[in-house]
Amino acid sequence: MHAILGKPRRALLVCCCALAMSPAAAFDEAQLYINNAPPYSYVDEGREAGLVYDLLDQMAARAGFRSHISSVPFKRIAVQLSMQPSSLAAIWRQPEVELSYIWIVKLLEEPAILVARSDTAGDISSIDAARKLRVGVVLGSPAELIARRLGFQHIEVSTSAVSNARKLDRGRIDAWLAVPSVIAAAQQQIRSNLGALRSGPPIEKIAMYLSCAPPCNDIDIDRWKRAAAAMKKDGSYARIIDRYLLVPR
Hints:
By secondary structure, the chain is of the alpha/beta class. It is built from nine helices and eleven strands.
């Protein structure tokens, strides 16, 4: 026999259900875009993972958002932000795009470097020395912007870091311009190692930021900044960085 709820208990149950279903009790939604390149974003045994994916997923939760994180090519990120004014993205901050976005939270920083095969003689000791080499970059990446700004004469564009790793391995390019973590991940994907490569000096440091396209009127910027500050304070930010073998900045 089912117990019959008294009026006070029924009223309490109705109130609790109404509160649970109310907009105030639900998480706000947050659409974020990140580049689909390991180690920043990739699929691991059927689930999304990666350095930037994990950072933004936890940051969104701290800020009270239910995150929807989409991994897309570089060029697609700019398109999505222009089409969805309330969305955010992880974007590399460079002179060419400085005025195109509002830079909310610095996520990480790495140097852009040139690498070449250890068994080749192409000179990557300086920008001037490497300018005439066939240099691989990813389409729309910070490396492409750097290569064009610095006047490299033979820029070979690919759609992924893995493509550049394979091209370099097969001698189809002389050097590859990227950041160290992306180079390491791509080498692992083609079952090679960093010992097969030699590196030139850092060309310039570039930082990735959580960003939005102005005017960002629908985005609570301070909410995201507070969430990032809380993660850094309790060490969870550094733990995510360390998990992917990068040094927090």
